[in-house]
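Troubleshooting: if your tokenizer reports a length mismatch, compare against these two reference records.
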Amino acid sequence: MISSYRRFLLLCSLPVFSLPMPLAAQEAGPVETGPDHEHAEEENDYIIVQGTRLNRRVQDEPIRVEVIAGEEIEEKAIMRPGNIAMLVNETGGVRVQVTSPALGAANIRIQGLEGRYTQLLADNLPLYGGQAASLGLLQIPPTDLGQVEVIKGAASALYGASALGGVINLVSKRPGDEFEADILANATTRNGQDLTAYVAGPISANAGLSLTAGAHRQSGQDIDGDGWYDMAGYDRFTARPRFQWDGDDGSSLYVTLGAMTEDRVGGTLPGSTVPDGTTFVQAQDTERYDAGLVAEKPIGDRVSLHLRASAMRQDHLHRFGAVVEDDRHSNAFVEASVAGTSGSTSWVGGLAYQADSFRSDSFPAFDYSYKVPAIFAQLEQEATHDLTLAASARVDFHDEFGTRFSPRLSALYRPGDWTVRGSVGGGFFAPTPFVDAIEAAGLSRLEPLGDLEAESARTASLDMGYADGPWEANLTLFGANIKNSTRLEDIAADRVRLVNASGTTRIRGSELLLRYKQNGFTVTGSYVFVDATEPNPAGTGRQRVPLTPRHTGGLVGMWEEHGKGRIGVELYYTGRQELEDNPFRTRSRPYVHLGLLGEIVLGKISLFANAENLLDVRQSRYDPLVLPQRAASGQWTVDAWAPLEGFILNGGIRLRFGGH
């Protein structure tokens, strides 16, 4: 096996290519969740949303798109340089849920919907697969991000089956007109280290290159001394070269290559055992390679041709105690479309094809290969100066689950200082074996899949925002009905099967955001309510969806001045959650997460320190993490409902060269 160091050298020797987000979008500064109104248009003029295909300014989008950019990304990058989990977790209505306490794997839940329904994109491309693996979220550094776009609710009309619950689009930085470099070194009190670098520059008047690379290490930590790793150990190396070309006639070409390798180990410590007296090491070795391109060619003044294409392969070697699973996931995607404008009307129409496959050398009964051609169309109409209407529709011809129609209707109304958005949509999801418990326990105890039905959802939202001077307020009401959702069912002490749940899972909720911003000071308060219920498997009424807190809230205060530094404090509250298959409790305890951040800028050098979880909240302070006996699925831990790592202090240095 190639050593991790040699693999890292191989990754960094790949040729350099790049795609950028519009340069102006990088210069716009932070744009967090919340309303975009006329008084803020000067600040937001350069924030161009890419995830909805029509490249409109964020304040002109009928679909509500929450954009994180500029200083906000830089702030989260120094808090957690190794992955984007914290970056998306602190967006209202978005929750990062740990799916495998043994390895620390996690996925993204949007407005209470399961994490497998969230489509993770990079520059509008599915570079992490149609259904991103739970560890994928923890393997993406934020080093080269220019903005992050969050679309909530069924977005299958835009991106097909994988976007049933919403879309997270990671938009990369664009090379500027001069050389720039950003190097960050970080260390934590839990013996973790990160080293990341971003280098970019022009190669001609119309073309630029960039390279992002990172090395990340974490030693395994048994914080409560029970012989089980509360934090998995890992060594990870990443490299992503990009190329960007912009023609004088408006044509453009973006090419990206990516490579990542990681070895991750959790479970029992050497010499320790689980309650049945055996050792249970849980480990995963991952190698992922991907490539993508985005091209655009204008035809006249009002019509343009667009092409997007990508391919990804991810190889896994899992270990679940004595069981070793060797498998690979692959994804291929291509989309061609025509877009145009005519007066107050904008439109897009096109064809798409996506293929997702899974191959297991250990358990070939679970192999699948989905091939899905599709046609889609979008139409936006500025009915009046204050009212814009939008419609999207997509028909997927799934080779396993038949023809599926996914619509979405949206409206934007902006009277004065108010902004009102409404949206309804529907979509579907093609079931795979990889629900959360299987990600955590493997395939060895799962029965071969039967005749599962495709999962489907209908979602709706109403968003109202108001802005006056330094004050902003936003209220969102949302709901979703999910049919045929898949879940695990125990059929023996050591066997489970995947079935479609009978009845409908219902989610209703609201998000409230208040913000005051003046003279470098920003204070943001947020509150999210989620009422999620599902049919009781015993057939006796309904029950609350596990691991979905009804009440969450946050209060964030930040002072920052460009070129000098920043100081911030964050407080987040997570309410009680229903639990299942937990012998220690049926409901979790509420908890508060408190953090403190400081950074000082000294010319091209900045020094930073970040204290996370100052109250040292840990799930293992209340109950053991390890089960008294192994679950039917094969999992040895209870579900994670609170932080596992406790208090962590990290700090480091950031060096910047060139650029503006």
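Reference record two:
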Amino acid sequence: MEAVQTEAAAVHQTLDFGRIGGAVVGTFPSESCSMLSSRSDVRYVEPDGILEATGHGSSGTQTIPWGVDRIDADEVHHDGYTGRGADIAIIDTGIDSDHPDLQANLGAGNAYVPCGTTVSGEPCTQSNGNDCLQPWDDDNDHGTHVAGTADAVNNAEGVVGVSTRATLHALKALDCNGQGYYSDVAAAIVYTADQGWEVANLSLGGDVGSQTVHDACKYAYRNGVLLVAAAGNDGCEGCVDYPAAYPEVIAVSATTRNDAVASFSSTGPQIELAAPGAEIYSTVAGGYATFSGTSMAAPHVAGAGAQLMVVGFNNANNVTYDESGELSQDSYENPDGARGRLRQTAEDLDLPASAQGYGLVDVEAALAIGESGTVSVDQPDRNTWRTVSLRGAYDDPVVIMKPVSYNGVHPAHVRLRNVQSESFEFQIEEWAYQDGKHVQETIQYIVMESSTYVSSAGNRIEVGTMTTNHQFTERNFTQNFTTKPVIFAQSQTHNGPYPIAVRQRNTSSTSTEIRLQEEEGLDGIHVSETVGYMAIEPGVFNINGTQFEVGRTPDAVTDTWYNISFTESYETPLFLADLQTFDGSDTATLRYRNLSSSGVEISVQEEQSRDTETQHTTEVVGYGVIETGGLI
């Protein structure tokens, strides 16, 4: 780059994009531009254009802005998610350095256009009243408004952001008129990556691309930065602004209170997510105001990205480019990455893909580790399978769906298959000697991501899978429990055609033993199946704001009805239960009846393929009560 610098009459920026190369931005004589264009080691020569903040109009006790509420960010605040530990770069007009709703979250900043000056270096002729206490202070209000939506403090005054405790970094690349050079924006993007900050919000754009800005985006993306940008306010199809239109960047369109795409929002095939952008109330220098624009939509996504970074997501793993230099699909569809997670969990608004992309960003769904629900179905025949579509998206989900209610007296249990990231299939399975038809029953289920967790009260939880057959297989836990956990186990596959129960024994704080059990009238040999398990320390506790009660009965449950009284009272309880012992070797499952806010009745039900006798010796039953259905 030294040879290029020597040709410049004045150098404005020198940018290093790592393996991509670099750029020298400055004033060059026309003959130097011609000469540099002809050199094989110079990739491009382009003018340093102007980008603009993507528009706003203003009007003017803490309120929850409708956009924060609409994407369920306020719900995750109740669960303790704040974004603390993540860094969000606001590449914009700056941030008001002493705003009471932002000051506590402000970190280091940088100014490419100092507060109080225009992009040309002249003093600003208009003022928003900001005293410019920092070079990166906001002399326009746009950047401060964006910052408030992404990360205003939850402090009982003003507004609250999507995140509330992430660290905000003001990178002032736009002036008091909302304008800035491509090169300054590119420098701010590179600076974000070099600082190791996870998220960059770019509520700015132009209808002409810049290779310099694109190279900066590639550099930042390779270095793990989640880039979020406003789609533009041209209100037309196929006119998404740059840098939003670059594949490394999440292009965000704007929606209204009634979930329509805003009339001003640019749309096109590059749109990836939608977010609230009409009439958004947020912070401005010295106060609060309502603005509209895709600029207001983008920080909803940036704040959601920060929340994901804190819980272990990154931008994307294994970023690769194809032979033509284009970002590969795998690089941003990776489900382990925050970008893929935001896509997977977005809410479909039934709008064209060019308007909403994958849908409206949903913070609660993106952060969910599980969900629960209730189904009431009959079983018309052995071949009918029903699908449960999941609200969340999971990499390695485990489903527990037992026991079956007692509307029909014929022995029955639930069988699962095709447990996937966004759905699973189930049927009410009768034993092979029965006709396969069953009356309507009610069954509750829980889905959780395979991992280890600790509840708000310190209860340890382990969720995972194992492979077993008709012989007991020992499963060693990945963690040591402080007390013997309650085990819920169920086959996740349907490899063998014959009905099975899943039984367990010898659970300790370090391991358990699990097997498949066919009905007695068959040969008892069953092929291997994948069994999902949830090991949970007993107690009453909260997981992400959802109340659980987990316990076990004495060794006293038989084929007669046994009453379990809950410790707490529940308005709409979901009930799960599983045999914890193998005291009776006859093939058996559990049934329940009379589920109420305070208790339930359970019994052990043997199948009758060998004889009509159904008496069963005493067993220990583990049970779980969930406060209500929904995301966990």
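Descriptive notes for reference record two:
- Residues 370-631 form one domain.
- Confidence is low (pLDDT under 50) at residues 56-60.
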